Amino acid sequence: MDLVVEGRLFFAGGLTDGCVGIKNGKIVKIAKTLGSQDRLSLPNHIIIPGGMDMHVHFREPGMTHKEDFYTGSKAAAHGGTTFFLDMPNTRPPTKYLSDLMEKRTMAEKSVVDYGLHALLGPVSKPQLAEEATGWKWYYGPSTGAEAWTDIAMAKEVLASFSSFTTLHAEEPSLLDNPGTDLVGHDLARPVDSEAAAIDKIAREGIFGLHVAHCSSAQALYTAKRAGYSAEVTLHHLLLDTGSDLGGYGKVNPPLRKKIDRKALWQTFLDGGSVVASDHAPHTMDEKEQEFQLAPAGMPGVEERLPVLMALAKRGAVPIERVVDACCEKPGRLLGLDKGRLTEGCDADLAAFDPRELKEINEGCVNSKCGWTPYLGQEAIFPSHVVARGKLVVEKGSFVGEKGHGRYVGHADAPSGEGA
Ligand code: NCD
Ligand code: ZN
Ligand code: ZN
Fold first, then answer.
1. Superfamily per CATH, domain 51-334
2. Ligand 1 centre from 253 Cα, in Å?
3. 283 lines ligand 1 (CB under 6 A)
4. What is the rounded distance in angstroms from the CA atom of residue 110 to the CA atom of residue 81?
5. Tens digits of per-residue pLDDT, 227-276?
6. 349 in ligand 1 pocket by Cβ < 6 Å?
7. pLDDT for 416 beyond 90
8. How far apart are CA 398 and CA 27, in angstroms?
9. Which of 4, 92, 132, 384 could pair with 118 in a Cys bridge, judged by C-beta atoms 3.0 to 4.6 Å apart?
């Protein structure tokens, strides 16, 4: 064995002392005790599968002043995330096969494994579906992405070259001009617009979608009724229109009222949804502009798991729910041998010392954008992170290698696993 990691493992749905044996980047054995010269002994540490983040914007190409594949993947590693799925709203957008192939070369500098979405639209071609991990369908408009509302044509494209497909669901006809503050933004892109979009698309007979960033319980229910899998974000779970964030809190879909946020949290606890970050870094200068001009989106790839691990320590969410939402279910949805502490899976692990609970401050930020909407929130950052068998974080410091990450290609549409 190349490495044995020892600690309190999240195994078979609970925590138990044990060892993970790793060889050639794979988990080859899980047992109470395992012998090996190279061992990482982490008593009292909770060891979970490496996080899988199904929704990040690493801004390459075109906006590398906000993030790039190296800085973004490094931030992911610091947060215990060893796989990310990147979005196509770059400059240029990932629309043609040549765009995707160029992006694949750029992404080779990633320190953790990754997948890439291609943009679904009128010029989509089968070869793009074969080479990309999945489609991203902007049915509603968002930062750097125009809406594509031709449902009939989208249905045709998805029927002839199907792939895992993530949907940005906001009904364009219900969206208004941007408001001047968080409350106004919530009203301008109303909570009903998500359910309306999901419902309309489902009624046209499009199956097997994955709904991004559901901001309300209603959107989650509607996705479930349609048989779609669904994602919630850390920001919609923890921040609301009462947050003191101004333009930094502007995001699509918007942060909602506290009462809506509480209902979303409850529905998330009930199970089914995955948690993604929708890590959407913008510079502080851009966010400091007048609210109406500030671009929508906020970072979160490195805060997602640490904040949820702190909430688990406080008893606000069971750890099984955190592992399911952040690691296991994303792996299952994408059909990958990742996201589980199981023999035969990739050796992606994150180790957390519950005694290292702290409040997030500016010093915690590794993302190139240099800010976080989670200042003051409690978090447990992982002390050690293993990505496909290699240590990328050791005692909280980055020890990873540029280019260690590997591309994960075409993923099929999930068959019938709803939200
Ligand atoms: C995202 C971005 O900035 O790329 N912004 C956002 O408000 N969520 C785009 C998106 O996910 O819709
Ligand atoms: Zn979106
Ligand atoms: Zn997004």
1. Metal-dependent hydrolases (3.20.20.140)
2. 8
3. no
4. 12
5. 999 999 999 999 999 999 999 999 999 999 999 999 999 999 999 999 99
6. no
7. no
8. 22
9. 132
> What average pLDDT score do residues 10-17 get?
94
Q: Which atom of ligand 1 is nearest to the CA of 251?
A: 7
Which of 343, 246, 224, 255 shows the shortest CA–CA distance to 290?
246
Paired strand residues for 27: 22
C-alpha of residue 236 to centroid of ligand 2, in Å: 13
Per-residue pLDDT tens digits for 280-301: 999 999 999 999 999 999 999 9
377: Cβ below 6 Å to ligand 1? no
Query: Domain segments of the chain: what residues?
Result: 3-47+343-398, 51-334
Known catalytic residue: 181? no
Ligand nearest to the CA of 282: 1
pLDDT number for residue 157? 97
Question: What is the CATH superfamily name and number for domain 3-47+343-398?
Answer: Urease, subunit C, domain 1 (2.30.40.10)
* Structure-token pair, residue 304: 């997602």
Contact 6, 31 (CB under 8 A): no
137 backbone dihedrals φ, ψ, rounded to 5°: -110, 110
Q: Which two tokens stand for residue 205?
A: 């007979």
- pLDDT in the model for residue 80: 99
State if residue 144 touches ligand 1 by the CB under 6 angstroms criterion.
Answer: yes
